[in-house]
Task: inverse folding
């Protein structure tokens, strides 16, 4: 069995020979992030890849992210290490169901979170990210009738901030849905000076407790901009902690577990290496963790599996992304 370092070296060699770049989402395994040319949120990665001359893109994330890469780089080969890496949020809204809902609500425009399939984007008028959602929605006419999907929590937050009354699709991320107020309260007792950061895909009661609300990238940006703040309680997928600790080594990042579980002395009464509470189980996305070094090697060796999008869907799906970029 090859060591991790041997696998990494093989990836570096294959990447050079294929003239490929490796893109890794913040939620992937640490060793995946270590071999990546670019690390970030899904749309940022797709945009960065489109700016490069690389003819081959390896998207280590989930399937809709690989689709977005293909939409923005239609002439490039986009590889995904494991096509089974889906997304509970994207899967909560099918194109068929959205098309039916649109028919039931004539006169409404569809605003889709970028965490959707290409087929759903093709039915949408505009996309948003968790980082630009409020800005994009506020740029639209106040009297415009809007359907927002698929993330109910993000849509509910936008409504509360903007004063809108968008119709909300009842979808959600299985990771962010698991964060609880109780777990955060328990951690705050142990870390009273810590800043609470929460992703906008979290439920409203969790967001109400957060000092910093936003995208994964915005949490990292905030921590870097506030070196004087030494502790952060983080309510998002635990993969981001690797990059946070790398870029902010003098700060401590404590993951919120998916539920309150009492150990001998309660949650977080002791810590393991890296500051993760020893008595908690980190909240992780099993789909993101399907990306492995071995699978990256395999797709670079075989140039499979490649992401393809039907031409008619791709033609329509890129339009709401372009609309978003023009507004944000």
Result:
């Amino acid at each position: 069995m090859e060591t991790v370092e041997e696998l990494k070296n093989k990836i570096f060699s294959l990447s050079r020979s294929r003239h490929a770049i490796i893109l890794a989402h913040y939620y992937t395994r640490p060793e995946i992030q270590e071999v990546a040319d670019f690390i970030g949120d899904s749309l940022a990665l797709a945009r960065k890849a489109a700016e490069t001359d690389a003819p081959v893109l390896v998207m280590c994330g989930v399937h809709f992210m690989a689709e977005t890469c293909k939409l923005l780089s239609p002439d490039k080969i986009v590889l995904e290490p494991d096509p089974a890496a889906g997304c509970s949020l994207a899967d909560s809204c099918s194109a068929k169901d959205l098309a039916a809902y649109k028919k039931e609500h004539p006169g409404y425009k569809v605003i889709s979170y970028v965490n959707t399939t290409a087929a759903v984007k093709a039915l949408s008028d505009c996309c948003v990210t968790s980082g630009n959602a409020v800005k994009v929605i506020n740029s639209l006419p106040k009297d415009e009738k809007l359907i927002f999907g698929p993330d109910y929590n993000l849509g509910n937050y936008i409504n509360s901030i903007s004063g809108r009354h968008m119709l909300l699709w009842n979808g959600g991320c299985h990771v962010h849905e698991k964060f609880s107020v109780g777990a955060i309260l328990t951690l705050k007792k142990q870390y009273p000076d810590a800043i609470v950061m929460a992703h906008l895909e979290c439920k409203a009661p969790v967001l109400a407790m957060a000092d910093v609300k936003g995208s994964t990238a915005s949490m990292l940006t905030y921590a870097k901009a506030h070196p004087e703040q030494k502790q952060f309680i983080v309510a998002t997928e635990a993969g981001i902690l690797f990059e946070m600790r790398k870029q902010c080594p003098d700060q401590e990042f404590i993951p919120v577990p998916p539920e309150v579980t009492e150990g001998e002395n309660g949650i977080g009464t002791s810590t393991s290496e890296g500051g993760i509470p020893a008595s908690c189980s980190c909240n992780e996305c099993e789909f993101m963790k399907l990306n492995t070094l071995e699978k990256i090697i395999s797709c670079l060796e075989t140039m499979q599996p490649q992401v393809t999008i039907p031409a008619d869907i791709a033609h329509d799906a890129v339009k709401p992304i372009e609309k978003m970029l023009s507004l944000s």
